[in-house]
Write a structure and sequence with these properties.
Elements (H helix, E strand, L loop, with lengths): L5 H20 L7 E13 L1 H4 L5 E12 L5 E6 L2 E2 L1 E7 L2 E9 L6 E5 L4 E8 L5 E7 L4 H7 L3 H6 L7 E4 L10
Antiparallel strand pairs: 1-2, 2-8, 3-4, 3-7, 5-6, 5-9, 9-10
Length: 177
Amino acid sequence: MRHCTPRHVCSAIMVAIGLCGLLAGRGAPKPGISLAVVGFKTNTIAASELGLLSDRESVCAVIRMSNCGARPVIFRADEDMPCYRTIRQEGAIWKESACVFECGLVVRDRSLGPGQSLTFNAAVERDRPCRISVPYRSSNLRTQVRRFLPTWLVQRVSWLSPVSAVATPMITIGRKE
């Protein structure tokens, strides 16, 4: 019968530290999708059409959503229009708007494969910095792993979150001259 020597204990500790380091390195995976502002569209509705004193203008940021990961990503959408959230700058902090754009009547899960992209329009305001955010899921593996772990652990390990989100850089549109 063999005895547990300090050498065995030290080896076991080194293996455990190596495994923890390997798992910690995987703790913050690279986002599966990216959002980029590729242009702007301005729509003007004549005052006479609405019975108003002045024309009404709406501005949309044209956003390209690309899957830069190795696996498909899943997001909520109406056809090719993702459900997005507007994050507005208030002072030095960013706050997500209470209103979530649910984009239509037939909202369902949509998949975007590796290397694929789509373009959509998101409403923005002049003279009010904002970012557009799209929540997504990258795999069902997280959901499967979550089922077998205690709640306290799931809440402390960020990569186990079932939904991630990606946001555009800050969008700023100046006042109309």
